[in-house]
Specification:
Length: 347
């Protein structure tokens, strides 16, 4: 298939890696240092992280007595969540310095950096001993040939779990306008054992609810699990899970939730994505600013405490937590460990 490109071609040229080869570079052994000092060397400053702003927020834990079943379910979810990270140059260093190997790491796809940055980072994380899950953004992949190159690179890197999304690119790079078209294009006999797709507890900013419901139904036979899009409203998420089950969709569901980060820093990180990408993000999460900046703000422990009864209901089929870290893996991981310690005390 040729060689994997050393990095994306640059901002605004997300599809140009097609035909240039997707084979991954052989990196050094496990460890925090990146081969050559970075992932996707030639990318510009998109998604670059900033320093901590403000003091850490007070942690919130479930209060009062917990039923044994609920406590056990939450403890299990907190022991092995999925952390979503952005494909920045320092992402692997941040993960290696703070996150234990039992945590699954998913890697987003950026219209500005293109699919090579995502796949290179996922392969690097897998080399370091993590269960890595790259996001395959349909609108960033030109055709079946490029898709095959990506799959070859993932197989070579020992990655058999992917998360298929439509993506945020304003126009498709090629023949895949949505996740369903990419799922149908997966070759027979592919090596993937786990394929995730997105669910929308809150209305999609660009797609009518009827279409997202139909899309989930259409994708259910081509996927193995669902990840809910990030929401800050536990009641909305719980009601959505109930609706999914009432429609006969039985795939396991990972609950998408934000991790721990200072809201000012989160806004700064969002601007590092790029002006257009940040605008799309904010349109895709209309309650984000209001939730983060209102009195009391958002706190992941409070979110989980509210959802706990539903997390523990077997018939709802909640498989675990998918935590959007915005690369704030250190405070999010600290929160997770504090939550686990608290759960041990209250059990």
């Amino acid at each position: 298939m040729g060689r994997w490109p050393e990095g994306p071609e640059g901002p605004g040229r997300t599809g140009e890696a097609a035909g240039k080869g997707w084979r991954s570079r052989a990196g050094p052994g496990p460890g925090p240092a990146l081969g050559g000092g970075s992932v996707a060397h030639s990318a510009t400053g998109a998604y670059s992280a900033t320093s901590q702003v403000g003091p850490p927020r007070e942690r919130t834990f479930p209060r009062g007595p917990l039923r044994a079943g609920s406590s056990d379910v939450l403890t299990s979810f907190l022991r092995s969540p999925r952390y979503e990270v952005l494909p920045t140059d320092d992402a692997a260093d941040r993960v290696a310095a703070n996150v234990p190997r039992e945590i699954t790491i998913t890697v987003t796809a950026s219209p500005r950096r293109g699919m090579p940055a995502t796949v290179l980072l996922a392969v690097r994380l897998a080399q370091m001993g993590y269960r890595a899950v790259p996001h395959l953004s349909a609108r960033l992949i030109r055709d079946a040939h490029e898709l095959g190159q990506i799959l070859d690179a993932l197989k070579e890197g020992g990655i058999d779990n992917v998360f298929v999304v439509a993506g945020d690119a304003p126009k498709p790079a090629g023949q895949f306008p949505d996740a369903l078209s990419l799922l149908h294009a997966l070759p027979a006999g592919h090596h993937l054992t786990q394929i995730g797709v997105t669910g929308y507890p809150e209305s999609h900013p660009f797609i009518h609810d009827d279409m997202t419901i139909q899309a989930m139904w259409d994708k259910r036979r081509l996927a193995t699990y669902i990840v809910s899009n990030m929401s800050f409203d536990p009641a909305t998420v719980s009601a959505w899970v109930e609706r999914v089950r009432s429609r006969g969709v039985e795939l396991p569901i990972y609950i998408g939730m934000a991790g721990v980060a200072d809201p000012v820093r989160l806004l700064r990180v969002s601007t590092k994505i790029g002006v257009a990408d940040a605008a799309r993000f904010l349109r895709g999460h209309p309650s984000w600013v209001a939730r983060m900046f209102r009195p009391g703000g958002y706190e992941p422990g409070r979110f989980l405490a509210t959802m706990l009864p539903d997390l523990a209901r077997p018939k709802l089929g909640v498989a675990g937590l998918h935590v959007f870290t915005f690369n704030e893996v250190e405070p999010t991981e600290r929160w997770r460990r504090e939550m686990l310690a608290r759960m041990e005390v209250v059990r």
